[in-house]
Amino acid sequence: MKKIISSILLIACLWISLSSCSTKQPPATESARLPDVENQADADQDTPTAAPPPEAEQAPLVLPQPVPGPLRECIESAIGASTWHEIDTGKRQPSQGERDAITTCVDEEPPSPPEPPPGETVDAPEDAPQAPAPEVEEDPVPVGSAPNALAPFPETPLPVGELVTVENSFFQVTYYDKYAFYDDYQTTLIPVHVVDLAGNDNDFFIEITSEIPEGWEQVGAAGPVPTNQIPGEEGGDILVALPPFRYSQTQETTFTVEARSSQYQERLVFSFTVVAYPQLQAGQAEGNADATAMVEGLVTDAETGQPIQDAAVSLWLGPTTRIMPFDMLKATQDNGSYIQSVWDIDVVNDHYAPYTEMPGYVLMVQKAGYHTYIHENYLRPRSQMPLHLDISLVPLDEPVAYDLKWETPLWSPGVWEIEMNEAWDRFAVAMGKHPDHDDPDTLPTEIPLLDAEGRILWAKPLPDQSWAVDISTDGSLVACGTHAYNQGDSNYAYLWDADGSELWRKSPPTETLDIAISPDKQLVAFGPTESGLSLGLYNASSGGELWGLDTGFQKVRQVAFTPDGQHLLAGPVVHLIDTSGEIIWRRYEFSGLPYIIWTSPDMSRIMIPDKGDYISMYNGDGDLLWRRDLRVLTYGAMSADGSLVVALAHNGNLFAYSGEGELLWYRQIPVGDSAGGAGHNGIDITPDGRYIAVGGGNYTTLLYDAQGNLLWRHQGTAPIDQSEHPYLHSTMAVRISPDGTKIISGYGTSDPRICYFEMAPGQ
Question: I want to staple 594 with a disulfide (CB 3.0 to 4.6 A). Which of 101, 558, 705, 731 is the partner?
Fold first, then answer.
């Protein structure tokens, strides 16, 4: 034992002799040292020849920092890469045999000179050789713009065959005869282009008619899927919905598809081939040193050189940061260090060959109060070539901060939606949750009205949870609907006045998913009606039904008055309707379930994020201007003029688009030590697009600017059970005032409460 420690101290001393031959060891990054090195180094400074502790209290190994590649290879060869990774990352101490093997490698391979900690220097003789700073071992492939960084994996299957056009007497379909589908990244939707040959506007339907082959899973009843009303002259895209892919090996399958329209009886039958790639399997990484690579380094302040704790370091491969079994989002330790395990880039490219080759990982670092850092080159880590990259974050010129003014506990099942009046001194809250498999048919709760100080002015008991709430611009009316599953006798729509007096209620046959009060307080819209029509318009004073409309679906998912109060937008199917009940236009959304409908004041832009994972931008005439797809889209928001669109996707991915649909930037929402995703309704934006408020997992509330810099972050203090669905402990709803000075957020059912923030004085 003495021989081992003495050998290591002697080697370290030889390197430090470049300056003063002191045996003091500089602090090292956590990723490149074993636990408690600092304590041992302090002891060595005073007693460099002290005897080692007894076997029961082994002194930790001290290795040169960073560990040189040849030395690491020697150690991994001697004790195994996975064993070395556990020891190197501090998961366990080495056994005596492992210590002997590591020491043998140290004796054979001279270590690289250690780096001084940030902010400190080591004086060296003028003629002494200078220790080189650690450099990234990377292929210099520039990242380029945000769209380029995510280009290798579009959200829908990749066309890899020949373009084919088939037609009958009435319409034609253009598609590719072969597609590559990557289950890690893509939705099972294949767009095909349809044109009515007579130039008529037409509603088209499409479905797979062939049997579902082995490896693919049929979910639910098969049938035709409605799509957009296709404009006659130029045509448009409709989507073929593939069944979920469940096979563990790459599989090539041919599907037969039938397309038909609402106007013609004649149908078109065609076929295409799909080469489906399964997700990279966790078993491929476990215990496989050739599949796992590492990226590590330090994050420091560019001005002070001090380490930055809790900076969020994320690695992106395609449009996601989560490739199982790795969550490629880490928070830096108190010494600024980070370490990430990832798939070897060659393993990734071997898996997805021959149709796609990934240039590498995009490395991004975020910290509230700093400019977002994106490394200029793709990182291409390999199992035998771990990358070391130190990063300096530049502080923002104008940081902002918010103070928590009050927080008010509420009731189960948690906050679902928050609406407020123009003065921001009245807040109506819908108490609901994303459904879990073990939820009862009803979840009784209360709906509160709060004032500007967080006091509950009144609360109304409900027989079931609510997804639908609205408040008039002056705060004098509050509307609400209940959301019971298949419990018609438990569903109601209510209207109350400012004192909580019930003005009227209705009893629709199924749940009310949204409700809206007109800007002039004269009208209330929701669906279904008591007679079962999809949407109804009511007189606010009397509760009388003015008209009902059948949209083709049982109920509407969203309804919104236009800013001038003269029209309603509702879906599914997406309709523009005037207040007399006349349909101006209608457009099919593939999913049929819009999450929210945003309109510009002049009605030149209408933005709809939907459950089919599409963001759609229309003009006031209902023309589709652009559409973007995101895997598991959960919510979206738009600036007043439509020049900035932001959207949340699964696992807390945040995307920003220009008014023309160009991807501007993307971020991973930092939520703490684990990937908690984002709240279901967790994004809002100021009308000028300057500030973007986000509700994250693990009770986080965040603020970004229009350039994607993280300005501010707050995390709740309630305990978190990571075995629960993330929505149970997410900030499920968040709103920001038009001037950006106030933020209100609501937590999910594990800690149901409302938190209210105001911008700190002097900001």
Answer: 558
Q: State the DSSP H helix or E strand holding residue 680, giving kind and residue range, or none if neither.
A: strand 678-685
* CB of 725 closer than 8 Å to CB of 436: yes
Pick from 202, 206, 136: nearest CA to 385: 136
The whole-number pLDDT of residue 297 equals 96
Nearest to 70 by CA among 389, 386, 390, 296: 386
Alpha helices in 17-61 (DSSP H): 37-46
> What are the angstrom distances between the C-alpha of 260 and each of 124, 194, 552, 586?
80, 10, 18, 19
Residue 22, φ and ψ in degrees, nearest 5: -70, 150
290 against 404, higher pLDDT: 404
Cβ-based neighbours of 373, under 8 Å, separated by 6 or more: 364, 365, 366, 391, 392, 393, 394
Peptide bond into 142 cis (omega under 30): no
Instruction: Please report, as a single letter, which amino acid is at residue 553.
Output: F
Q: Collapsing DSSP states into helix, strand and coil, what is residue 732? A: strand
User: What would the 3-class secondary structure string for 574-592 be?
Assistant: EEEEECCCCEEEEECCCCC
Taking all residues of the chain, what is their mean pLDDT, rounded to a whole number? 83
- C-beta neighbour count of 156 within 10 angstroms: 21
Burial of 91 (0-12, 13-18, 19+ CB in 10 A): exposed
**For residue 182, how far is the Cα from the chain centroid?**
19
Helical ranges in 17-120 per DSSP H: 37-46, 69-79, 81-88, 96-108
Two tokens, residue 446: 């209360």
* Torsion on CA atoms 209, 211, 212, 213, rounded to nearest 10: -140
DSSP assignment of 378-434 equals -B--BTTB-EE--EEEPBPSS---EEEEEEEE--TTBEEEEEE-TTS-EEEEEE---
Tens of pLDDT, residues 287-340: 566 788 999 999 999 999 999 999 999 999 888 887 878 878 889 999 999 999
Helix (H) or strand (E) holding 192: strand 189-196
**Separation between Cα atoms, residue 193 and residue 237, nearest integer Å:** 4
Radius of gyration of the chain (CA): 30
* Spatial contact of 442 and 487, defined as CB atoms under 8 Å apart: yes
Q: Which of 665, 650, 748 is nearest to 706 (CA)?
A: 665
Q: Give the tens place of pLDDT for each residue, 547-557.
A: 999 988 889 99
β strands within 543-676, DSSP E: 545-549, 558-561, 567-571, 574-578, 583-587, 598-599, 606-609, 614-618, 624-629, 633-638, 644-649, 653-658, 663-668
Contacts of 165 (CB under 8 A, 6+ apart): 172, 173, 174
> Would you call 307 helix, strand, or coil by DSSP?
strand
Task: Output DSSP code: residue 101.
Answer: H
Residue with tokens 């076997």, as numbered in its chain = 55
Residues in the chain: 763
Least confident interval from 171-180, 189-198, 387-396: 189-198
**Displacement of CA 621 from its chain's centroid (Å):** 32
Q: Tokens 């991915």 belong to which residue?
A: 653
Q: What is the residue type of 621?
A: D
Give the number of C-alpha atoms closer than 13 A to the C-alpha of residue 531, restricted to the C-beta side: 10
Residue 495's φ and ψ, nearest 5 degrees, are -135, 125
Q: Which residues pair with 605 in a beta bridge?
A: none
Backbone angles phi and psi of 228, in degrees to 5? -60, 150
- CA count, 13 A, side-chain hemisphere, 283: 2
Residue with tokens 């979206």: 636
Strand order across the 171-176 sheet: 163-167, 171-176, 189-196, 236-241
Would you state the pLDDT for residue 751? 96
Structure tokens at 311: 């900076």
